[in-house]
Amino acid sequence: MKFVPQDFRGWFEAYLAAFNRGDFDGFGAFYADDVIFHGQAAQLRGRDAVLDFYRKVRARLDEQVELVSFAGAEGGRRIAAELRTTLLARRDWLEMPTGPMRAGDKRQSVNIVFYDLHEYKFTRVRSARLWPQPGTPK
Amino acid sequence: MTASERRFRDYMRAFNASDWDALRRFYAADVELIIGNGTTLLGREAIVDFYRNIKSWTSRTIEIVDCFSEGNLLAAELESEFVALTDAPDFPTRPMQRGDRYYINSFALYEFHGSEYRRIRAAVFRREFRSLIGE
Lengths: 138, 135
Description:
The complex is a heterodimer of chains A (138) and B (135). Chain A is built from three helices and six strands, in the order ααββαββββ. Chain A has 138 residues and is α+β, with helices and mostly antiparallel strands. Helix content of chain A is 23%, strand content 43%. Chain A has a six-stranded mixed beta sheet with strand order 2-1-6-5-4-3, with helices on one face. Chain B is α+β, with helices and mostly antiparallel strands and 135 residues long. Chain B has a single domain, classed as Nuclear Transport Factor 2, Chain: A (Roll). Chain B is built from three helices and six strands. A six-stranded mixed beta sheet of chain B has the order 2-1-6-5-4-3, with helices on one face. Classes of the chains: A alpha+beta (138), B alpha+beta (135). Chain A binds chain B through residues 38, 69-74, 78, 80, 82, 111-114, 126-133, 136, and chain B through 34, 36-38, 66, 68-71, 73-75, 77, 106-109, 111, 121, 123-125.
């Protein structure tokens, strides 16, 4: 029997909660094997590549994502989420893809992220930066 | 298709037709719009003036790739193409010359109350500039 969450938003919030506590098995279970991932800091293909990327990130900084707004499409085919991301560098990461960070630096951004789904797995994740825009005060 | 999705398609039709009177009716008087280049506009008239100004320099058509809604929030994926009708050195994203084309793929969130949009946020996922004379 196919899995269908009773509460679509609650299901997505469980993904974010797993992400925020660094539960790689937990949040990794939401990705399709061949997920296409267009993040702010990386363009990746496949669950393993995404998890490897986030392991590298987690080794250097703490990342917390907060759900600001949510809309789920009928039949669970797509999600639009407005996410506020807070990065806190635990150590220097001068090669950080979205800009160098020093230990203790804190950086916030707000993104609109679209998730395409198939049978409640993310098949494509696309993130568009809402704030801050390049050249605007952080 | 829900009522809010139908209304959104009507809204985009009004936009593409440059029907400013029709467009005005979709906005709350104190609507806030944050667009993909970081600009914030407050109020129905400021938004219509902004779009009217842009359309005096460029032809812009917006295609709805997808839209869906939940509660009082509508999410849309949009594709826009701007074609410069004249040299537009003050075009918000970058200067354009007559004939240049600028394409954006964007994600937008519309918060509505009743039949009016109260808060709109749009972020650019992909952008592509095509110069008439090449770069």
